[in-house]
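Annotated sample (chain length 417).
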Amino acid sequence: MLDPKFIRSNPDLVMAGLTNRGAEIAPVENFLSVDEEWRKLTAKIDERKARRNAASEQIAQLKKNKTDASKLLAEMKVLSDEIKTLEDEQKGFERQIEEIVMAIPNIPQATVPKGKDCRDNLQVRMWGEKRKFDFKPLPHDELGKKLDILDFDRAAKISGSRFVVYKGLGAALERALISFMLDLHIKENGYTEVMTPAMVLPESMRGTGQLPKFEEELFRCRDDELYLIPTAEVSVTNLYREEILPSGSLPIKHVAYSPCFRREAGSYGKDVKGIIRQHQFNKVELVKFVEPDKSNDELEKLTADAELVLKKLNLPYRIMQLCSGDLGFSAAKTYDIEVWFPSENQYREISSCSNFESFQARRANIRYRPAKDAKPEFVHTLNGSGLAVGRCFAAILENYQKADGTLEIPEVLKKYL
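Output written by the structure step:
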């Protein structure tokens, strides 16, 4: 979340950032109104506490002099009752302020291009040569069925729509991709692997920004206060919730494989075929905890780390910087990595690499000490897919297919198969 002090001191800046996002400014106006009432109430409480403290000193002096203090004691009792009533009212305002601030998205960095939606995103660079086919390339779902490595019909029988069964060499290829990505990020990119729970408490979802705004996108357990994670970002980021990281411990770089679960509410009719938009899918996630003045440099490095997967697989891709109107709720700056799908003659997102600055850290109360005896400060968090495994699987099928309907295997994956 944004720092309430920052909103109070820079309301025009915050509202301009929300306007650039295409978000409503009403929450900021509401915050300013409630915050003003809270400050007035706080001033009343402080004034009464000062009077009570002065009365306490007078009472102590009267008792010392063995003088009747009953009148002052009665006055102090009235003040204490007033303070308690006002403090209860103050807590109500504080709850309102927290609810308002939790619903306000992050504001874009100054370097983020202004725009309304994905059509205004900025292409940063491209890599790789698009393969020229002397036959019409099949979509990945059709090829997967022909090779008998993807079974959508039996998945639908088991679980309904937007699920898939990986069979035989398809299951092996999915598993090989996971192992390859983890090995690459651990051995070459210097990440520490963690394997975290796939179910988390509401506090964890609030920490990374999924709650309260995106509850309809989440799968929730019926009998327990637990949610299935939409990405390992949630559980990995919350590893350090309510902690103060010691001086010299940053940057912390984690990589995690996990299954991910999304309702895809509001996306029906989009990408129904294939494995692009599933309710359950596999992903390898990169998460960083860094010092604030280094977070943008670390974002560039994180993006390069994710790119390396596609370079090793020799899959053509491009990097897009998201415009203000296409940013995610918690992000201040984002690069999308889009891989080439020849059957569609277009690029498709396979990773979003984002700098959240202190937005998630404030929600999750993750701080660090800049020096041994220094006052704790909020860390900056970053994350990106390294990569979405199913989409990588689909891109391999499309880019490595042969005229006879068979499939080549990228060289780097052969030792895993």
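Annotation: Residues 45 and 87 are 7 Å apart (CA to CA).
Annotation: The radius of gyration is 27 Å.
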